[in-house]
Design goal:
Heat Shock Protein 90, Helix Hairpins, alpha+beta, about 15% strand, 3 domains, about 450 residues, Beta-Lactamase
């Protein structure tokens, strides 16, 4: 069953039950009202009968004539009897058209006032005391007008009920179609989205209902899928492009080595070239694998706490060991009194890669001139600044150098694959920190990394 049919059915059933309960309640009230009114009429008839037959000697002629006129206005199928203390009909002959059972008469005499239904007839009985004695007056009649009115009410409610259900069903179909129409649009649009057009997005509209929320959720999912496919595509493209060069060099060197017998010095030179290309190849593969790893599930990789000052000292020691001619200076200024404010929630291994790449680049592109690394506390958070005095970056390329495998024009003479900076920025932003590059061509580059207080507080 489709959602539209299910909604229509549920809507119709709920309204049907409500209308049925309302109709039954109205019918009950109308029936109760007719019975009450007719019982009142029967009581009046019994009272008038008592006044006509028992109060004749006690009222004036004018009042008595009024009683007689009212007494002549009988009800349909009316039967009124007056019984004396011996349960004998008074004023009316016993065979004069019917009588009531003795047990009913005695009940009236005991309870003083009785009303009951006997099939289509309604019966009332009253006990009446007079100077002539104790009497029981019983009156009954058929409420033909009330029965017809009740039947008319029942039929009207039934017709209205059936008509209402038809209207409710039709309106339910219409409104369910209107409500689900955006869903149909979403289904059509989603079916049009394939791997080749993941950039397409669903119309989120201006509403804040569940349909809009579903569209937003789909768009977020498409965003993640597009990013994943783009990452995979970039990985394949970049890998195929970047890996071919060192592999081709290695193959060429080996082919040259195998063309003829060579001296030990020539073999050592060839092996040295192959080793250089292999190291380059290894560096590219490591960068690609690291990039692919952090693109998988960023949040799942932030699994520990990292103290920033200790991390910087460790990286400085590693850079000094691997690049002995480097000159990295760490400055700790305006640090917080509480050392816990230097601790962030994140991944130490990845942060080590990111900051090492940045400091190594600063050393490389400055010709191992002095590199200043500042760690300080600011109102916005904890700030790390890496400043060198190197070749700088052309202004038009500052925004481009963070892209994978992109290398500035003036960096062509330096070893590198163009992965390190892109990887570092990705890791830094993964830790909810800001990453900014400022550079002056020929004067040097400054990179600022700001870990906001919210990121710092997550670790406490």
């Amino acid at each position: 069953m489709t959602i539209r049919n299910r909604l229509t059915l549920i809507y119709t059933v709920i309204v049907a039950l409500i209308l049925l309960a309302l109709s039954l309640f109205v019918f009950y009230l109308v029936k109760l009202n007719f019975h009450t009114v007719f019982f009142e009429k029967l009581y009046n008839r019994a009272e008038i009968t008592a006044q006509v037959f028992l109060e004749k000697d006690e009222v004036s002629a004018t009042i008595f004539k009024d009683f007689e006129a009212r007494y002549s206005q009988t009800l349909p199928g009316e039967l009124i009897r007056v019984y004396d203390k011996d349960n004998k009909p008074a004023f009316i002959e016993e065979n004069g058209g019917g009588t009531y059972p003795v047990d009913l008469i005695n009940r009236v005499r005991t309870e003083k006032k009785v009303e009951l239904d006997d099939g289509h007839r309604q019966i009332v009985g009253i006990h009446y005391s007079d100077n002539q004695g104790e009497f029981v007056i019983i009156a009954s009649a058929e409420d033909d007008v009330g029965a017809h009115s009740l039947a008319f009410t029942r039929n009207t409610l039934l017709i209205g009920y059936i008509s209402s259900l038809i209207v409710v069903f039709i309106s339910g179909r219409f409104f369910s179609k209107q409500v689900l129409q955006p869903m149909s649009g979403i289904v059509r649009n989603v079916n049009r989205i394939t791997v080749s057009n993941l950039h397409m997005r669903l119309d989120e509209g201006k509403g804040r209902d569940e349909i809009a929320e579903l569209s937003i959720t789909f768009n977020n999912m498409l965003e993640r899928l597009e990013r994943s496919f783009e990452t995979e595509k970039n990985f394949v493209d970049n890998a195929s492009h970047q890996l071919r060069t060192p592999l081709a060099s290695i193959i060429v060197e080996l082919e040259v080595a195998l063309t003829k017998t060579r001296t030990n010095e020539e073999y050592q030179s060839l092996l040295g070239s192959i080793l250089t290309e292999s190291e380059k190849l290894n560096h590219i593969i490591s960068g690609l694998l690291d990039m692919a790893q952090i693109n998988r599930d960023e949040s799942a990789m932030l699994t520990g706490v990292v103290r920033l000052d200790e991390l910087l000292w460790d990286i400085r020691d590693k850079v000094s060991k691997e690049i002995p001619e480097s000159k990295v200076q760490i400055s700790l200024a305006n640090l917080p009194s509480n050392s816990d404010e230097l601790v962030i929630y994140g991944n130490k291994y990845l942060l080590d890669i990111a900051l090492y790449n940045l400091i190594e680049n600063a050393c490389k592109f400055s010709g191992n001139k002095e590199v200043l690394v500042h760690l300080l506390s600011s109102p916005s958070g904890t700030l790390i600044t890496i400043r060198d005095k190197g070749i700088g970056i052309p202004p038009e390329e500052v925004k481009e150098v963070s892209k994978s495998f992109y290398r500035a024009k003036n960096a062509a003479s330096f070893k590198g694959s163009g992965i390190g900076l892109a990887l570092s920025e990705k890791i830094i932003r993964m830790h909810k920190a800001t990453f900014e590059i400022e550079s002056q061509l020929g004067k040097g580059t400054s990179i600022q990394i700001l870990f906001p207080h919210e990121q710092l507080q997550q670790s406490s």
